Amino acid sequence: MTITDEGRSCAVGLSLGARGSMHPLLSVITVTWNGRRYVDECVRSLNQASEIPSEVIVVDNNSSDGTPELIESSFPNFTVIRNASNLGFSKANNIGIAMSCGRYLCLINSDVVLPPHCLDRLFRFMEANPDVAVAGPQMRGPNDEIRRSSMRLPTLTNAFCRAIALDRIPFLSKLLGGQMMSDFQHDATADVEVLNGWFWVIRREALGQVGLLDERFFMYGEDMDWCLRFRDAGWRVVLVADACALHYGGASSSVAPVRFYIEMHRANLQYWQKHHGRAKTVMYAAILLVHHLVRLVGHSLAYLAFAGRRTQLAGKIKRNSALMGFLIGIHTALP
Questions:
Q1: 255 versus 41: which is more confidently predicted?
Q2: Is residue 3 scored above 70 in pLDDT?
Q3: Domain 2-149+186-247 - what CATH class?
Q4: Contact yes or no for 89/31 (Cβ under 8 A)
Q5: How far are the Cα atoms of 132, 229, 235 from residue 129, in angstroms, in the given order?
Q6: Rounded to two decimals, what is the model's pTM?
Q7: Domain locations in the chain?
Q8: H-type helices in 100-215, by residue range?
Q9: Were 38 and a residue from 50, 111, 136, 197 both cysteine, which residue would form a disulfide, CB within 3.0 to 4.6 Å?
């Protein structure tokens, strides 16, 4: 079933274990913007992921590579919503949420592949833990390695520690509240401050209390904002290591890595402005400038010393330089 972004109502295109049922327990929502190869693998895994009554809603942000046509032809039981333009991650997910009917919302990136039983285990965990608003599985890479899928909320202290690389030392990371959690191996179920936005299971009751994703975050930053809002409302946010899924990562951002890198940091500044005010935002921006100045110097020296790594390092140098230029003109980024 295909729907344009003008027509919204509860989706009735049921799939997974829900064939013949009109009462899904899970509403699986994925946002697509090109990346057809990844999307094909993702939706095929979604079609076989669970026997729990579910619906799949795909919100396409005006892809130009045939992504929505692929889904419509291969999976007519999925609901496809075609946006007339790229509305961003938060707004597109909110459109999918508005169409959904499930008790739980599963927001899954389009470059994720679900193994059997992943959704079942997350569903059972949510049913057994009614105080959990958000749960997410362990992230695996293409070689089945465990990857980081959670982090701590940003502070000026952990931002500075990250700038000078102190957070890479596990015991210091734990002591100083390192944002990237190098002290945690992501191999055990645990309450966390932030679950990164690649794969979320959201309790609808909690969503009703906290509200939708903040659409001011076009892409990136919405995970910190949403998890903070759930935690402030008294709900738990939990990494569930008993469930896992493959995440390729960067399927859309690889098209324009420098642009997306700047957008990520623009979103971080929006988060600081929203939750900490202008003064602390400027302080955070100054720390970020130090962070990338240190990396720029380091990458430039490595470029001179290691001829075999120059292609990779050139990309990092370009990224560091572009972000520093953006930060120097920070007055244009702050409302």
A1: 41
A2: no
A3: alpha beta
A4: yes
A5: 6, 19, 11
A6: 0.89
A7: 2-149+186-247, 154-183, 256-327
A8: 118-128, 156-163, 170-176, 204-210
A9: 111
